[in-house]
Design goal:
The protein is an alpha/beta fold and about 170 residues long. About 40% of the residues lie in helices and about 15% in strands. Strands 5-4-3-1-2-6 form a 6-stranded parallel β-sheet, with helices on both faces.
Length: about 170
């Protein structure tokens, strides 16, 4: 009696590469440009959009929910905290990173309590934005892999019909 080495093993399905949509909410042009340049070099980042104010961020996020949101706490027009609250309501699985020049404990506690995944100091933690994208890639890959095993589909970020990676203003 011959044994079938493949018996009981689920069919292998290739999981597509993770492609992320990123929204950068920052009112300082030099900082925003630096964030966009850094994230734009990462292969997993398929689409980058930018906002400089709360209303613009909410409009862009509502129209095209991002997988990753990089957000300043203090904006010249509006509140990054209110953007964080809205993102959590609309897309709880999004990875949200607060990147601020005001790394005070009171802001950190408030943002983390509202669901921020990261609270980063612009002066010392800028390069940790790579970690933010890595966490988003891992979460997305787990969702896609779990869906593949279950035989269903899961959103995998931008694919055909989504905009190519290019900063927009």
């Amino acid at each position: 009696m011959a044994l079938d080495p493949g018996a009981g093993v689920p069919e292998f399905r290739a999981v597509p590469p993770v492609r992320l949509r990123v929204l950068v909410v920052e009112d300082a042009p030099l900082i925003r440009d630096r964030i966009v340049r850094l994230l734009g070099t990462m292969p997993a980042v398929a689409a980058l959009s930018e906002a400089i104010a709360e209303a613009e961020a909410l409009e862009k996020f509502s129209a095209q929910p991002a997988d990753v949101v990089v957000l300043d706490v203090r904006l010249a027009q509006g509140s990054g905290v209110r953007v964080l609250e809205a993102v959590r309501r609309m897309r709880p699985e999004a990875v949200v990173a607060i990147l601020t020049n005001f790394p005070y404990a009171i802001y950190r506690r408030r943002c983390m309590a509202l669901g921020a995944d990261f609270f980063l100091d612009k002066a010392t933690d800028f390069e940790r934005l790579r970690d933010v994208v890595a966490v988003a890639v891992a979460r997305q890959a787990r969702r896609v892999h779990a869906a593949a095993i279950a035989g269903t589909t899961a959103p995998a970020g931008p694919g055909p019909g989504h905009p190519p990676r290019a900063p927009e203003s």
